[in-house]
Amino acid sequence: MEEPIIIVSADDHTGGPPEIYRDYIESKYLGALDALTAENDEWVGITTSAGGTAKGHPSEVLEVIDERNAIRTDGELGAWDMARRLRELDAEGVAGELLLSGHQCSTLPFFGTVNHPHSPELRAAGTRAYHRWLADCITASHGRLFGVAEPGPCLDMDETVKELRWVAHHGFVGVLAPGMVFDEALPSFQNPYYEPFWTACAETRLVVTMHAGWGGVQGQFQKFLEFSKQHMGAEIDQEAVRKLLDTRDDSPIRLTLGPRRSLWQLMLGGVFDRHPELRLMLTEVRADWLPATLAHLDRRFDELGSPMRRRPSEYFASNCGIAPSSPHRAEVEMRHEIGVERFLFGVDYPHPEGTWPNTYDWIRDAFAGVPEHEARQILGENAIAFYGLDRAALVAAARRIGPKPSELLGRHDVDPRKIEHFHKRSGYSRPAEEIDTDAIDRALEQDLALGVK
Length: 453
Prior knowledge:
The protein is an alpha/beta fold and about 450 residues long. The protein is built from 20 helices and seven strands.
């Protein structure tokens, strides 16, 4: 008898409209929460008109990708409707998922990069309310949902650490890296300012999670989506997009280099040396760049005379992982270069660029020819080990709803039109990225000038 494959999505998204936080936010902020309704309506209007929702696909596309009517019956609203969410997980064969904030169907309570600018006080209050709402959802899921917390403004480190300890005791297994929302008051990760944060994460086993969009400025996403709406169907000037998303001349390339840069900044900061048990997960920042980047960093530090105790590739192998949501075919083919044991799978639900509602066919095509033991690692076992998830609960869920190996692995014919759509929505078929070593070297030179801690 075939044992079902345990699928764990290391990158799914949640959060709801302002009204769901009324019972969770402190009373003095209720007026601000009511006022957030207009911002929520604006956000949903922009994402809808800019083609940012799955339901916006033409009927002929939905006939191909929405065979079970998940999109046409508002399956996206499982973003906060947890009963619907669990039904979608069941249908996709996903035993468990890690939940991060933010999606196209609602805004967030003040703290996200999808919000308009809000004060640090309001962002912190919204963060607490979001955590307490999500903690209740996690409890009700009976071991299938796991939270990745928000870092909050991080301007009051004592309060930040207090909240980290709270979430660690309420079903959260990770936390986004400080500075998810850009603030000039926050220093580089090499700065000792963050030591209480790293210490708390190490002690509570919260995985530090670096997600795409890190370092964004509140209000920029609205500008970006308006820009996308205006240029729909046209060739978009990538340099214009870059200028739109980066407000400072010295800002990191937030869609690419910025999140990646955290790797060597933590290494240079001695964080993994002081906290060998600390873990860093790079989520939704792709993975095809990783082998060449680590090799380049190894060479550069060898040439410079490394100021660190170990080589970058060694730190990655012992402390880091990567979850390129809706993995590209090229990334799966590179799994040995990336590291099979450090490669995690992500559905990215309810984002329209994710594998939902076609997770089975996505895996059938992307993992064609992958041995079963490697597929099991990437699809679920690595997430269980890296985040310390409740394996018994996930095994029970997989035995009820999970796919048999023969349903996913081996030879399966997937509709070419569906594969073509995978590429349109996530770049599925593109070749591995050629890294920009000059950009890496420029950033590395700046970070080396800050010194090794």
